[in-house]
Amino acid sequence: MSEELILELKGITKIFPGVKALNNVCFQLRKGEVHALMGENGAGKSTFIKVITGVFPPEEGQIFLEGKEVKFKGTRDSLAVGIAAVYQHPTTYPDLSVTENIFMGHQIKKGPVMDWKSMHKKAAELLGRLNADFDPHAEMGTLSVAQQQMVEIAKALSTNARIIILDEPTASLTANESKELYRIVKQLRDEGVSLIFISHRMEDMYELADRVTVFRDATYIGTYDVNGITTADLVKAMVGREIKDMYPKPKVEIGDEVLRIDGLCRMGYYKDVSMFARAGEIVGLTGLVGARRTEVMESVCGITKPSAGKVYLNGEELKVKCPKDAMDAGIVLLPEDRHKEGLILTWGLGMNVTLPVQDELAKGRIFNDNKRERELSRDLLESVDTKAVSIFDPASSLSGGNQQKVVVAKSLAQNGTKVIILDEPTKGVDVGAKAEIYAIIGELALKGYAIIMISSEMPEILGMCDRIYVMCNGRVTGCLDIAEADQEKILNLAMLEKGKEAVS
Amino acid sequence: MAGKSGRTISATPNRSFLKTVLSWEGALVVIFIAVLVAGRIMSPSFTLDGVMFMMPQHLCQLFIVFPMAFVLIMGEIDISVGSIACLSATTACLAANAGLPLPLVIIICLATGVACGALNGFVLTKWPELPPMIVTLGTQIIFRGIAEVVIGAGSSLKYDSDNLSPFATYLGPVPIVFIVVIVVAALFMVLLSRTTFGRRLYAIGSNRIAAKYAGIGVNRMRFIVYALAGLMAALCALFLLTQIPAVKSDEFGKGFEMNVIAMCVFGGIATTGGKGNLFGAFIAGMTIVCLRIALGLVNVNDNVITIIIGVLLIVSVLISGISQILARRKLKNKT
Fold first, then answer.
1. Which of A286-295, A339-348, B41-50, B182-191 has the highest mean pLDDT?
2. What percent of chain A has pLDDT over 70?
3. Contact A377 B11 (CB under 8 A)
4. Which residues in chain A are contacts of B224 at CB distance < 8 A?
5. Quick one: pLDDT at residue B1?
6. Measuring CA to CA, which of A69, A294, A376, A407 is 20 to 30 A from A494?
7. pLDDT tens digit string along A318-337?
8. pLDDT for the residue numbered B335
9. CA–CA dist A194, B168 (Å, integer)
């Protein structure tokens, strides 16, 4: 890495109607470095990326590429000088082949016709360079998210990019896939490519970055050497206050067994899953993505039907035919995908919160009791400290962390809940809001709920749980007490059956 | 567990008079009045009595507007309602001609409608992946086909009894059918806007998966709504028989589904689901009925009337489309 700057942005201000999305921000990227860009949701990182790639021309400020000022009118301009971005959710064409995806927009042609032969050859070369193990003829939709990301990186390389921007690339990757990505990033860096890396994960930054720049509330806070700053200081820079304890787990007297899953099977998904959860206990359920953790819990909650096995609640066998049955019995699920499964984004927060209990609140169980609904939803939303002005704000207007709080409030709406199942509760949530959600989970355990937390994030599993179940390929491969658990043991269990065929 | 920051959230709805007036429903009321005024100016016969006299034959379709609004709010579509009306009218005729008493005729007619709607509902909930448009296109052909087999192609089945005549009478200047429409409209409006049932419909139309995760029996709701659409199509058929006491398989109820969907969309109900209300649909329906009467009175050709209504429909979708695009742009600029 040299001291020479490849990209410099000075005094960038970007104004959207009513909001300053970026306020006099500066940034320096050295040649051949991996530069992490961190900050909470809404800090302006995404807007900043879009300024660099030319999607949003800034109102004020200058961009210098190797010392010369440049002005981008669109992504075409930035691509032409070798700047490419890889986004969190790969923006691909699932029905087209890998090659077609790589060369979308800059196809190699022989006269007026596509030169598929050279494109396939070039694609294979690029994928080989990244050590990818799939065929360029493969259909994009059949690849995993990690593989699709590799295609996106290959696409960036195919345009001879000198600067590659990775926007939360590890958000939907498993630990192993992340490692593979780290390897690729390091390789690209060694080949002289400069990378900007956006992530919420501290591990990513420590593993990869040389320097880190922090944004907060649309302003530039500072640039630090990764080795020269402590995690606590960095979090403070991002959040603007000190987070004393990331995992505030209260001491809870663990009670009797509440939920027992006995030999649950669903053909083609998971097999012979047994586990239990006690009152006040936080039980972790971890494993690699694709280990079928969500599928097990969806069956427990009546969303899918298991083909064999039993579920007991307080010692009594539970017959669940639909989600409502599970909820009536006292099991609530906070689904993984807030936008798709957890919230009606166009609705106000209040109505979202009371949707599962509107029957119970209604007069004569028929006529909506708006007053009671509004009061209940307001109380619940306040109890989880949601950042919102009114219960009539649409759910889409909140940040990820606050949306998650609305989902938590929703799960607390009904009386008689005994078991709360959280599926990836902090996915896509920034550091400040994460700590708040952990605090809420801790308080729920204190109140005596049995909590099952599905998570792929090792630190949160180790930080919050009392007991940890590990799944692999549709089977439970082990159960660890928190006292004996560590990252290595969990990973070993999570990959225990790797290579074996999935449950059929 | 109290909020640590002590932050409070408002639970008072922010209703403003201006917002109500500027809504699409407000605009519809203005359009409705404009149609009435224009009608009065164009034709001297466009009086209260005149309109009331012409109204019954146009009004029947309004019965289907309400359940169709439910179907659309769920994000689905039912294009078999016209055929259901035709088949229900056929069974009503058969029953009446066999000399059955009126209550039995009514029950048979409505039961036919419910059965047809329930068949739609059954197929669509048994195989939820099937698109409602295609399934109800299939049943549209099937139901009308059955009516044609029963009646015979080209011939017409007469309703050989005058026991329906009490329904064709007037209460003062107001036709009975208008009163029934108003009552039905009120019932459906309460059902949609005040009950848990209505809230569930909006939930399903806004985000079906989230609705399922929130414990709503999505398929049960869909079944009920399709059956309800069948029932109301049969009610429509019954009142239509009081006006035209004969059924021709290729004419009776033909095109009703599209007229009704047009009224709903004109009334501000989005075909994508989750949006709109019955007040809008009702006013839109009344506007189209009065427009038809007014244009009919000044001897505008029926086909021209259809063209005008088509234009009206596209303009209304365009207006809501433009406002949506503007709203999206505003949102996009924010993020």
1. B182-191
2. 96
3. yes
4. none
5. 44
6. A407
7. 999 999 999 999 999 999 88
8. 44
9. 82
Return the pLDDT at A201: 79
CB neighbour list of residue A253: distance below 8 Å, 6 or more residues apart: A280
Query: Which of A498, A480, A500 minimizes the C-alpha distance to A490?
Result: A480
For the residues A124-135, what does the mean pLDDT come to?
86
CA torsion through residues B309, B312, B316, B322, sign: positive
Q: Is the pLDDT of residue A160 over 90?
A: no
Range A243-330+418-430+450-504 classified under CATH 3.90.1600.10: no
Nearest to A41 by CA among A472, A434, A474: A434
pLDDT value, residue B329 = 67
User: Which chain A residues touch B330 with a CB distance below 8 Å?
Assistant: 17
Q: Domain ranges in chain B?
A: 59-69+78-255
Residue of B1, B212, B224 to mutate, testing the A interface (most A Cβ within 10 Å of its Cβ): B1
Structural tokens at position A406: 């609305």
Nearest residue of chain A to residue B190 (CA atoms): A367
pLDDT at B5: 64
Q: Rounded to an integer, what distance in angstroms lies between the CA atom of residue B10 and that of residue B135?
A: 45
* Predicted pLDDT of residue B7: 75
Query: A465-479, B16-30, B305-319: which has the highest mean pLDDT?
Result: A465-479
Nearest to B219 by CA among B328, B300, B129, B321: B129
Using CA atoms in the order A246, A251, A255, A261, what is the torsion angle rounded to 10 degrees? 20
CATH code of domain A5-239: 3.40.50.300
Tokens of B146: 């059955």
Shortest Cα–Cα distance, A59 to chain B (Å): 14
pLDDT at A442: 94
Residues of B in contact with A387 (CB under 8 A): 7
Q: Taking 80 as the threshold, does the pLDDT of residue A28 lie above it? A: yes
A377 and chain B: CB distance < 8 Å anywhere?
yes
Provide the edge-to-edge strand list for the sheet that holds A219-225.
A68-70, A60-65, A5-16, A19-30, A219-225, A211-216, A34-38, A194-198, A163-167, A83-86
Identify the closest residue of chain A to B205 by CA–CA distance.
A344
Instruction: Give chain B positions within 8 Å (CB) of A342.
Output: 210, 213
Residue-level length of chain B? 335
- Cβ neighbors of A287 (< 8 A, separation 6 or more) are A293, A456, A470, A471, A472, A477, A493, A494
CATH 3.40.50.300 domain range(s) in chain A: 5-239, 243-330+418-430+450-504
Average pLDDT over residues A113-123: 90
* pLDDT of B328: 66
The first and second tokens of residue A190, run together, are 């060694």
Which residue on chain B is closest to A350 by alpha carbon?
B11
Q: Which residues pair with A394 in a beta bridge?
A: A348
Q: How far is CA B29 from CA A197, B275, B310, in A?
A: 55, 18, 19
Give the nearest partner residue to A368 out of B199, B203, B333, using CB atoms. Answer: B199
Q: Under an 8 A CB cutoff, do B333 and A375 touch?
A: no
Cross-chain CB nearest to A368 (options B196, B203, B209): B196
Q: Looking at the complex, does the CB of residue B203 fall below 8 Å from at least one CB of chain A?
A: yes
Instruction: Tell me which residue in B5, B194, B206 faces A385 most closely, judged by beta carbons.
Output: B5
Separation CA B118–CA B124 (nearest Å): 10
Contacts of A355 in chain B (CB under 8 A): 199, 203, 211, 214, 216
**How much is the mean pLDDT over chain B?**
90
A308: β partners? A265
Rounded Cα distance between B28 and B25, Å, is: 5
Q: Residue B140: is its pLDDT beyond 70?
A: yes
Report A:287-326 residues touching B (Cβ under 8 A). Answer: 303, 322-324
Give the pLDDT of residue B2.
46
Task: Using the predicted structure, report yes or no on whether residue B303 has a pLDDT greater than 80.
Answer: yes
Cβ distance B333 to A17 less than 8 Å, yes or no, reads yes
Write down the pLDDT at residue B283: 95
